[in-house]
Amino acid sequence: MKNPILSAPVFEPINGIHTVFDAMQVLRKTCAAYDFRYFSVLALPNAIAGADLSISQIAMISSWPPELISEYDRLNLARNSPVLDQLRKQITPLLFEVDSINDDRPATESTEAKALFARFGLSMGVYFPVHDSQGVRHAVSLIGNREPLAVNELTTLAMFSTLLVGQLAQINSDGNTGKSVLSARETEVLQWTAEGKTSAEIARITGLSEHTVNHYATIATQKLGCSNRTQAVVSALRLGLFS
């Protein structure tokens, strides 16, 4: 029997989420409908402030451009992130302006963070903290350069985030995430990547062309809702896709 909340028109797409790839598609449409540019779903560690972590490690799903993630992690901006630190402490939605919230960083880091987000035209965002049924803390994020959210938009997106994380938790517990999405070749390429092999080396091992190896890696990355190959490998490891 369908959950009556999920059957409401605004939340109906969540009914169709059976894989991480499905979740990515629903998030993409929701992001566009509310005039945001990018989305992400983070799995938050217990300790954040000053921790040695990266966005590519904690992002379960993300549409951030690979260049944004790469530069964010190169600058180690997660370490002193005021957003991630606040998410550790609160359960209500976190609305923020990029420049204002990055004022709380060390001086040089603040300048770098502001410049990075400005380069991608991002001026504001919102995070919705959510605990799944196992008590694991997540945050659903939307970021862009639109006007502040109205109260009804904030309320709807908060409920959407709660239902989305619940659906993702169900997918994980069912053990079918990724396995119903990735082909054998896509999984094989990611597995060799996890073992430190380059595209050229994987091509020699598998007998494929380097172009084909890169194609499989790109498709696998997209299917898992990731922004780069490294993130896809981390996601695949978490999902137990490698035998």
Automatic annotation (TrEMBL):
The keyword DNA-binding applies. It comes from the Bacteria. PROSITE patterns: HTH_LUXR_2 (PS50043). The keyword Transcription regulation applies. SUPFAM superfamilies: C-terminal effector domain of the bipartite response regulators (SSF46894), Pheromone-binding domain of LuxR-like quorum-sensing transcription factors (SSF75516). Pfam families: Autoind_bind, GerE. SMART domains: HTH_LUXR (SM00421). Keywords: DNA-binding, Transcription, Transcription regulation. Residues 175-240 form the HTH luxR-type domain. PANTHER family: DNA-BINDING TRANSCRIPTIONAL ACTIVATOR DEVR_DOSR. This is LuxR family transcriptional regulator.
